[in-house]
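Sequence design from tokenized structure. All designs in this work follow the same two-part layout: the structure record, then the generated sequence. An example of the structure record is given first.
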């Protein structure tokens, strides 16, 4: 098998101050198959899009700014829905399965047994598998190629990039921004910036009292409006992490939490996670060309749990269908509803105090816990209404959180959720 850095072999032809690129593979000669797609960013959502579009017959080129495919390691947790999206492609990225959650707050706890296990995946393995799948589908990958800007030309779009210190001009009919929350493509095409929050995570030795199939979650609103988590990678190691609002405060609280739990970091991981605050339209027209966004670039993240792999793939699938002139409305509309439900849940939780979280855990009776174990968090609307039907007081608690958030906003207190 070739190394991922050798996936794309291209001939360069210099014209003036730019270099245009001719792919080695012969281009299709008619109709849709002649319309080239450039994807900026070898992210999970970008590579997923590349494979889908290439299999549909359109020529696809992925531009990645790094000199080789070396994605940062990060331990992630996803629902079983990931398997239905990926089939066998990313099975090697699954390093553990979670069959139970334990929730803690102020001396209270609740246990939730999952009907279908959550999956622990290693991000760098996932990216490598997706890149290989995109290559097999016919997409080319170009490394050390940094996107600079985009504009119209007579037939579609003109991109300015820098590759190996040399400026190039490349052409496409469609461009997909898959370059993360600070997307250069989004800014160049006129989308407003996306707010982000810091994620801090450390790999630690799995505590002896924690089974390797159990994820633990702590709600400590004095530290963060989000939560802490402990995700076992194996019987020996786990990822301990937190989402906060401000980087310096988040790191300080996390270090205190590590000390309290008597855990030593073996390695550090971190990222800026986009905060979904309303649907980001995924398409813009520039002249005769079209620009799309997928994944973190479009804030396609479940803001209640700050997970974005499954929802990013759903957004990528919708965009791929649009690029192949297939119906994309149903997939994107369903994703919009899903993200909107998570946004409503986050708005309710975001201003919870300790008493509210204590009441929340107390309200998780056997019926509520069974619902949480049976319906995964990528079916949030169904899950929410099932919970409310079994325990109406959860609705009142959520409404209290929404009203509290509104009062705080009216007093002028800033919040990333507005």
């Amino acid at each position: 098998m070739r190394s991922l850095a050798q996936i794309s072999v291209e001939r360069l032809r210099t014209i003036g101050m730019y270099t245009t690129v001719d792919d080695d593979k012969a281009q299709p000669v008619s109709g849709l198959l002649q319309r080239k797609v450039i994807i900026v960013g070898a992210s999970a959502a970008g590579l997923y899009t590349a494979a889908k579009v290439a299999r549909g017959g359109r020529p696809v080129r992925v531009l990645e700014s790094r000199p080789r495919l070396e994605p940062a390691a990060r331990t992630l947790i996803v629902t079983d829905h990931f398997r239905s999206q990926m089939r066998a492609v990313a099975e090697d990225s699954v390093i553990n399965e979670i069959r139970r959650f334990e929730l803690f707050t102020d001396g209270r706890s609740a246990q939730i047994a999952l009907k279908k296990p959550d999956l622990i995946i290693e991000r760098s393995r996932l990216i490598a598998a997706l890149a290989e799948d995109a290559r097999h589908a016919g997409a080319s990958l170009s490394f050390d190629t940094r996107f600079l800007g985009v504009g119209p030309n007579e037939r579609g779009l003109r991109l300015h990039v820098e590759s190996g210190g040399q400026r190039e001009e490349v052409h496409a009919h469609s461009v997909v921004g898959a370059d993360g929350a600070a997307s250069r493509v989004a800014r160049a095409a006129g989308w407003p910036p996306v707010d982000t929050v810091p994620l801090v995570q450390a790999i630690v030795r799995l505590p002896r009292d924690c089974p390797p199939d159990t994820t633990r979650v702590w709600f400590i609103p004095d530290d963060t409006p989000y939560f802490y988590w402990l995700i076992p990678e194996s019987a020996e190691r786990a990822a301990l992490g937190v989402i906060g609002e401000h980087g310096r405060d988040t790191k300080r609280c996390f270090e205190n939490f590590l000390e309290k739990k008597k855990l030593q970091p073996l390695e550090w991981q971190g990222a800026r996670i986009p905060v979904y605050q309303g649907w980001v339209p995924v398409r813009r027209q520039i002249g005769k060309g079209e620009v799309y966004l997928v994944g973190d670039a479009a804030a396609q993240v479940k803001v209640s749990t700050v997970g974005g792999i499954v929802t990013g793939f759903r957004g990528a699938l919708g965009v791929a269908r649009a690029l192949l002139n297939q119906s994309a409305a149903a997939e994107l509309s369903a994703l919009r509803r899903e993200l909107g439900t998570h946004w409503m849940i986050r708005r309710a939780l975001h201003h919870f105090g300790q008493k509210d979280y204590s009441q929340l855990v107390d309200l998780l009776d056997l019926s509520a816990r069974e619902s949480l174990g049976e319906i995964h968090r990528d079916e949030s609307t169904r899950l929410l209404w099932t919970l409310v039907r079994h325990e109406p007081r959860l609705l009142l608690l959520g409404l209290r959180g929404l009203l509290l958030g509104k009062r705080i906003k009216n007093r002028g207190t800033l919040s990333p959720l507005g």
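The mean pLDDT is 87. We note this feature because it recurs in several other targets discussed in the main text.
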